[in-house]
């Protein structure tokens, strides 16, 4: 019995110690920073300022742009990634010749970093020599070049397109695995009832994989909300802050402004939003236990 | 007729999807193989008139690119190894034993995946500075290890749960201790799962940018993403060199992905579903 306790403790200790020391401890320090005047270039003069960092954030129009953009960014990216991901998963469910190779080419974006994907799309979206402008001109879809990233009217849409491209593979992979776990006898029963393809999808397949759908979208939304790397590589929030989301604005304040207090305030607001979102999502879907992933 | 229409639609959709997925990769490779002047001349050529390796030669001349590649390899492999060792232990315990606090420990792991981690970036920078680890590869190995422990634990736990417990019970009746049962009996069965977790960790480390940007400033310690980041700031218009750099940074992960795709996908989804 004692032997078992020692085994449990020694197995968990390295992982837990590291996470407490280098994930949770700095995380709590970051939250405290939100209530401090904490600037990298003025470290001698760190002091508590109450809610000043939050007040400053709420006075900054850039913050509200980022807040609104975060909403668009998560909502549009998620819906489109999910729809295309599900379509792809449904089409790939039954084996066909070359499916393995197809999946290799279809899913590789998973292995690239958001930052590099941002760079590649920045090159393709270039308003002067970008290939997307060139293609659209050749196909006579547009008459003159579009400043996909330089025109604030288009920039957010362009960033979202790149993100959809990046994330379809994730959904397709997860949903494909879920589809393949649907027991065949469920379909047989539906066949006996004379159900058609669409009905089978709606009455058999989707209900069965619903837990996976819920878990995947819940998590994915949070990751999309938290991850600034694609935007960082693509526009770095430009032009004039019009494509910042909250996480990229926070990053900007850390890396370029060195204003840790202001950055942390944004971080704390993000945590509050995530909490609200999670509670809302779990209530609406009535999923108390979504696997436990 | 309806069947044919369905197949036609399927081929069309998959075909378009394939083109859309592959084109960006194609375009960055093609750009990197064009002579500098051809990159900027109209009309754009979708198949270059002449191919050149100039951009690749150039990037090793204007920067210490071989050093960045080396640093990225060292950091990514070292951190992935340590992650595996630590996570195999924690995952095994969490898969096999029920104990007081089990749920809390799992929650502590899950939560790290949901929190906006960049709020820790500034405190971590200060911690690394106090520990005298700025501008060292140790800082990255340490933080990449920490960053991947939770996900790897969750993933490996899923694999452990698929192995019947009777396996090590039998070994323990035969006189093995818990440790040797884990090492001699379970680990060998787990190798595919361990391999895919390792590869996943390697790819994440290889791609990581922001911690590296915060901690590393010294040319001789930079990893590939940090170097690419300073390229953007320094040679914003030199798309020849940048595309060559991008291709070189992508190659290892694509290569690994091509070999291990099946395992990784299986690992990710199984681990996730089993929870």
- Here the CATH topology of chain B equals MetI-like fold
Question: What would the CATH topology of chain A be?
Answer: MetI-like fold
Average per-residue pLDDT of chain A, rounded, comes to: 91
Individual helix count of chain B: 12
The poorly predicted ranges of chain B are none
Class based on secondary structure composition and strand pairing of chain B: mainly alpha
What's the β-strand tally of chain B? 0
**CA radius of gyration of chain B:** 23 Å
Task: Report strand order across the widest sheet of chain A.
Answer: 1-2
Q: CATH homologous superfamily of chain B - what is it?
A: MetI-like
CATH class category name of chain B: Mainly Alpha
Question: Overview of this structure, please?
Answer:
The complex is a heterodimer of chains A (293) and B (275). Helices cover 72% and strands 1% of the residues of chain A. Chain A has a single domain (52-292), classed as Orthogonal Bundle (MetI-like fold), CATH 1.10.3720. Chain A has 293 residues and is mainly α. Chain A contains 12 helices and 2 strands. Chain A starts with a helix and ends in a 9-residue tail after the last helix. The mean pLDDT of chain A is 91. Chain B is an all-alpha fold and 275 residues long. In chain B, helix 8 packs across helix 9 (178-207), helix 9 runs antiparallel to helix 12 and helix 11 runs antiparallel to helix 12. The mean pLDDT of chain B is 89. Chains A and B meet through helix 1, helix 3, helix 4, helix 5 and helix 7 of A and helix 1, helix 4, helix 5, helix 6 and helix 7 of B.
